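Sample intake sheet
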Amino acid sequence: MIIHGERPFRQRTKQGLTIAPMKSGRFMLRVKSSLTAKRVKKDPAFKSLMEDAGRMKIASPLASRVYRELAIGDVRVYRQMVGRAKGLLKEGMAEPKIEIILRKEYGPVEMVFISTGIIYPVRDVRVISLYPPFSYAYISSA
């Protein structure tokens, strides 16, 4: 449970309760967490979390090297690249092959400038058909 009050001071923990100040000048009271860094790193319950963190440790620099070569200022593309690299690592692919795949998929592309000044890669533009294909044939009365 979070309780709000009007007394600004530094964060402190006493008797299992943590009191933390907020930017508004109010404070927040919450129960101290029993979760520690040592437990997260050693406990078998967090094994999958630590494996995912290890993949992230490898995937992030791989995607970063490829992303820096692109002239894109959109962090969403970088996040997509990291996700793709993590997926390939999970499948058991080697690091050099992953970098080659990222360069092929996200390599230099033509950019589109829109009126707001935002730059988008052309490959992200979806083509929408105004008239969907029909599965029936027209019968003429003539």
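Comment: DSSP finds four helices and six strands in the chain. The first helix runs from residue 37 to 42.
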